[in-house]
């Protein structure tokens, strides 16, 4: 009975001690995206632990170190320009990430709050370095768009030497605050620039409208000229067609007339050839007789036969006269 009682008391005491240990932080959790490092007596212990539940002695302390992208926000960063004007950047954001394999070395050299000496302090330093060699005009307007890239490159060069494994992904810089008097001057200047831009834009619009009108006029003139050219060419082609038709008609008329003349010439030639064939003594004698027969006049005298009779007949008549 005593043994059971002692065992029960021992278990109870162990449970109480375990509960006190857990309550004192012996059981702890590391969130996803972080790793844990341990300190005991202020000294950093070796190794890191992964996300999850872990146990440690009450005299040990744990620090969670983020190994995913994180954004450090540095506020109210002063900046003195080369001209002696003091401006302030309300907020500068540095997006960075620490490689898990470099966690222990970085924490050992710069503590768990490594981003203060490596990010926050370096941002102040690099911003003042930039401002010290540039005028207010350059910082506020002309080279403001270069500040974030210059700051990112400067930080990364420093980290490559001081904390390999910690890399800067991006830097975002807000517009700096400048003294009210200077700001009012800039605002007035911007207002004038805006007026000038409006005037220039209006002038460009007017010029564009004039140019458009000029081009429209040119296009209309070119169109009219093209129409006139087409009409002229059409008339020329029409005249050429008329001339061609006239030439064809002339050629056809000439050909018809030539054909008529040739036909007439051929007819007369053939008729002349036929007449030549007809001009025989017998045919001529027949024509002579027809002419005498158709003559109604009467002739008297001794030479009548020689006038109307052919030569052989006249000769025979003459012979008869001589013989009588």
Properties at a glance:
324 residues; alpha+beta; three-stranded antiparallel β-sheet; 63% helix; 17% strand
Question: Could you provide a short overview of the structure?
Answer:
By secondary structure, this protein is of the alpha+beta class. 63% of the residues lie in helices and 17% in strands.
| Strand segment count | 8
Give the overall silhouette.
Answer: elongated
Category by helix and strand content: alpha+beta
Order of helices and strands: HEEEEEEEHHHHEHHHH
Mean pLDDT, rounded to whole units? 83
Q: How far from one another are the termini?
A: 227 Å
Rg result? 67 Å
What is the percentage of strand-forming residues?
Answer: 15-25%
Characterization of the model:
The chain is an alpha+beta fold. It has 9 helices and 8 strands. The protein has helices at residues 2-23, 103-110, 115-132, 136-142, 144-162, 180-278, 281-293, 304-308, 311-323, and strands at 27-30, 34-40, 43-44, 52-55, 60-66, 70-80, 86-98, 166-173. A 3-stranded antiparallel beta sheet has the order 3-2-5. The chain has a 3-stranded antiparallel beta sheet with strand order 6-7-8, with helices on one face. A hairpin with a 2-residue loop joins strand 2 and strand 3 (43-44). Helix 3 (115-132) crosses helix 5 (144-162). The model has no long low-confidence stretch (mean pLDDT 83).
Topology:
Layout: H1 2-23, E1 27-30, E2 34-40, E3 43-44, E4 52-55, E5 60-66, E6 70-80, E7 86-98, H2 103-110, H3 115-132, H4 136-142, H5 144-162, E8 166-173, H6 180-278, H7 281-293, H8 304-308, H9 311-323
Antiparallel strand pairs: 1-4, 2-3, 2-5, 6-7, 7-8
Helix pairs in contact: 3-5
């Amino acid at each position: 009975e005593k043994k059971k009682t002692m065992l029960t008391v021992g278990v109870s005491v162990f449970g109480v001690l375990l509960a006190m240990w857990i309550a004192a932080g012996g059981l702890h959790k590391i969130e996803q995206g972080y790793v844990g490092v341990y300190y005991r007596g202020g000294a950093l212990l070796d190794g890191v632990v992964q996300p999850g539940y872990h146990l440690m002695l009450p005299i040990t302390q744990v620090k969670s170190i983020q190994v995913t992208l994180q954004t450090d926000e540095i506020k109210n960063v002063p900046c003195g320009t080369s001209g002696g004007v003091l401006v302030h950047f309300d907020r500068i954001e540095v997006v960075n990430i620490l490689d898990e394999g470099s966690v222990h070395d970085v924490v050992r050299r710069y503590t768990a709050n490594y981003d203060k000496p490596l990010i926050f302090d370096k941002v102040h330093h690099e911003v003042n370095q930039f401002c010290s060699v540039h005028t207010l005009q350059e910082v506020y307007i002309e080279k403001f768009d270069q500040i974030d890239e210059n700051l990112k490159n400067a930080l990364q060069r420093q980290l490559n030497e001081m904390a390999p494994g910690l890399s800067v992904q991006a830097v975002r810089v807000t517009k700096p605050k400048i003294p009210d008097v200077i700001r009012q001057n800039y605002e007035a200047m911007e207002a004038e620039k805006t007026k000038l831009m409006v005037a220039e834009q209006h002038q460009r619009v007017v010029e564009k409208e004039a140019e458009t009108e000029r081009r429209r006029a040119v296009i209309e003139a070119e169109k009219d000229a093209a129409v006139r050219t087409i009409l002229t060419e059409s008339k020329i082609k029409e005249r050429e067609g008329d001339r061609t038709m006239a030439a064809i008609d002339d050629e056809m008329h000439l050909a018809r007339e030539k054909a008529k003349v040739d036909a007439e010439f051929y007819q007369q030639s053939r008729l002349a050839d036929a007449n030549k064939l007809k001009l025989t003594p017998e045919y001529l004698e027949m024509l002579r007789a027809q002419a005498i027969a158709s003559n109604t006049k009467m002739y008297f005298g001794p030479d009548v036969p020689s006038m109307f009779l052919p030569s052989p007949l006249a000769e025979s008549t003459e012979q008869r006269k001589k013989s009588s």
